[in-house]
Amino acid sequence: MANSMILGRAASCLALLACLAAAPVCADGMVVVAHADSAIGALSREQVTHIFLGRMKRLPNGEPVTAVEVEPLRARFYPRLIGREVAEVNAYWARLQFSGRTQPPQRLASSSDALAAVLADRNLVAHLEADPGDPRVKVLLRLEP
Amino acid sequence: MIRSLAVRAALTGVLSLCGAAAQSADTGAASLTRWTLNGFGTLGAAYHDEADTRFRRSVDQRGGARAGHLELRNDSLLGVQVNGVLGAHWSVMAQAVTRQDVDRTWTPQLTWAFVKHVPNDWSEYRLGRMAVDIYLEGDSRHVGYAYTMVRPYADVYGRLTFDSFDGADATFLRDLGPGQLRFKLFGGRTRGDVYLNDAIYSLDLGRTFGATLDWVGPALSVKLSWGSVVTTRDRQNDPLRAGLLAFAPSLPNPAQALARAAEITNSNRISYLGLGVGWERGPLSLQVVGTDMSMTVYPGFEGWGLGATAAYRFGPWKPFLTYSRSIIDPVARALEVPAAHPFAPYWHLASDYTRHDQHTAGIGVRYDVAPNAALKLQLDRVDAKRSSSLLDDAGRRTDARAFTLFSASLDFVF
After folding, report:
1. What is the 3-state secondary structure (H, E, C) of A38-66?
2. Considering only CA atoms, which of B174, B256, B260, B246 is closest in space to residue B216?
3. B145–A90 CB contact, under 8 Å
4. Which of B81, B283, B371 has the CB atom closest to A90's CB atom?
5. How many domains are there within chain B?
6. Domain A2-143: what homologous superfamily?
7. Whether B413 and A85 lie within 8 Å, measured CB to CB
8. Which of A50, A82, A98 comes nearest B143 by C-beta?
9. How many CA within 13 A on the CB side of residue B326?
10. Selected residue of B139, B314, B367 to mutate for chain A interface (largest A Cβ count, 10 A)
11. What pLDDT digit, counting tens, does each position of B43-58 carry?
């Protein structure tokens, strides 16, 4: 069981590295992805904003959805998604978290961790540096530079 | 004792749910349970040189920044939060804050402790200890990292007294246009204190209830709120009532004095009506909050407060301008008291103790030194015709004051 998890994670890392190395495969710009078999379809920028800011936990089609963040990418993701610095997003979450409303998304250490999390849970969406070109995930939104 | 029942119920709920969580862990559902420990803090400093004046962040503080002293106790605080997600529908949260309180001590206060149930996507219910949710950022006003300035408007937020309660709230949510609409009802036993005229005012038997309606969109957020604190029996003015009854025969109009004494037991409500509007788009942030306040608790007052901030972010720098004002006037209570009468000073003290007219204009900058820490510098010009937020060195409300207040803070979360 543990071996298969390690192999799966290693495969994800290799796929991501391959993607990052092979420019023609990867579209330029950050992406929001989900499991290829997820019932979550293409999302609008507004929907992704609501999901990542904790305002939307279920899509209009009834599908539950949860966001995970990639810590090293947050500083570039939020300016591109909502035009605001990550410091503003951190302050926003401090306001919600310490008034007991809701908790911020889980923060993962790397894109490969996020990819592994998405592959393990079909209700998760994550932001990545670029389209990983991995058939096991689908791109829900592209954030052009 | 009575007011702690809701907190006890909440803690009992927490223990029960912890037991349930432990049980679910045994049956393989442990992944649904997640505990987190977080916190926040502020190291703040304030300085001014106005003689015989103490600047307070809020009226529940006994101390304040005195002339010529670098005051570190006004804004500094530390908070710790434990949050437990216990499956898909239940969670618990407890939060304690240590800050200078009305007794000038730093005894940690349990500011939040609740059990939360989310049965579906459109409603949430909480039971326990919570903060009164009147202003745009009122329920997180101790979390310095969450807002732009060194402190929330002292002229507005600082007037909100009795700001927590032991009880319950229910929130209903729905999507509306590009944003989310939230309607919340709350109520319970009042908690909190006010320090004024060298005395502590508490409402041990008070009840707090209210409602908020807010809409949060991609850039615009609007909040309407109403709150009320009702005391079933106000004993704090018993000495004044006794004085009125005792001196009535010697006053020019005894019936008037007896009528005022009767009002002390009949009037018992503090009400707030608030409106907040925030606009955040790209680097620009604008915010306006306004409140209408009234207190029928004897001798009563009516007033309003307004605060506005404009800020613009350049990378880690966020310069801002801020302005706030509040005016409070006592409700007219007719009583003929000759100036030389021994009851005169007590009557005037009681009638005027809330009188207040103060405004503050400020400029400052927030610098995010790290992903979880912000350094803030702020310069305020405080101008009061009369103030019950400021205190003189004897701990009483002040007459006219005008001074420049220098403030700095390091706010952080972890």
Report:
1. CCCCCCCHHHHHHHHCCCCCECCCCCECE
2. B174
3. yes
4. B371
5. 1
6. Periplasmic binding protein-like II (3.40.190.10)
7. no
8. A98
9. 29
10. B139
11. 999 999 999 999 998 8
Q: Say whether A95 and B146 touch across the interface (CB within 8 A).
A: yes
CATH number of the domain enclosing B405:
2.40.160
Instruction: Identify the band that residue A126 occupies on the pLDDT scale cut at 50, 70 and 90.
Output: very high
Residues of B in contact with A95 (CB under 8 A): 137, 140, 143, 146-147
Q: Where are the alpha helices (DSSP H) in chain A?
A: 2-21, 45-52, 74-82, 86-97, 111-120
CB–CB of B378/B363 below 8 Å?
A: yes
Dist CA B380 CA A28 (whole Å): 47
Q: Is B96 inside any structural domain? A: no
A-chain CB neighbours of B285 within 8 Å are 88
Rounded Cα distance, A126 and A132, in Å = 12
- How far does B1 lie from chain A, in Å, by closest CA? 25
Q: Which residues contact A41 (CB under 8 A, 6 or more apart)?
A: A61, A140
C-alpha to C-alpha distance for A76 and A101, rounded to whole angstroms: 26
CA distance A96 to chain B (A): 8
From first CA to last CA, the distance across chain A in angstroms is 40
CA–CA min distance A92, chain B (Å): 6
Best CA proximity match to B235, nearest among B302, B329, B164, B298? B298
- Cβ atoms of residues A22 and A16 within 8 Å: no
For chain B, how far is it from start to end, CA to CA, in angstroms?
34
Q: Which chain B residues are Cβ-neighbours of A75 within 8 angstroms? A: 371
Which of the 8 DSSP states describes residue B139?
G
Which residues of chain B make contact with A88, given a CB cutoff of 8 A?
Answer: 280, 285, 313
Q: Two tokens at A6?
A: 């390690």
A94 touches chain B (CB under 8 A): yes
Does any domain span residue B324? yes
Tens digits of residue pLDDT in B213-238: 999 988 999 999 999 888 766 667 77
Least confidently predicted of A65-69, A88-92, B376-380, B385-389: B385-389
Domain boundaries, chain A: 2-143
B177 CA: distance to closest CA in chain A (Å): 11
The runs of H, that is alpha helices, within B186-322 are 238-247, 254-266
In a domain, B231, yes or no: yes
Q: Which one of B212, B413, B414 would you mutate to disrupt binding with A, by most A Cβ within 10 Å of its Cβ?
A: B413
Q: Give the CA distances from residue B76 to residues B24, B72, B150, B281, in Å, rounded to whole numbers and listed in that order.
A: 41, 6, 10, 30
The region, left, alpha or beta by phi > 0 then psi within -120 to 50, assigned to residue B68 is left
- The per-residue pLDDT for range B136-158, each reduced to its tens digit, is 776 788 899 999 999 999 888 87
Residue B112 to residue A90, Cβ atoms within 8 A: no
Spatial CB neighbours of B409, under 8 Å, sequence gap ≥ 6: B42, B43, B44, B45, B75, B144, B150, B151, B375, B376
Q: Is A85 on the interface with B (CB under 8 A)?
A: yes
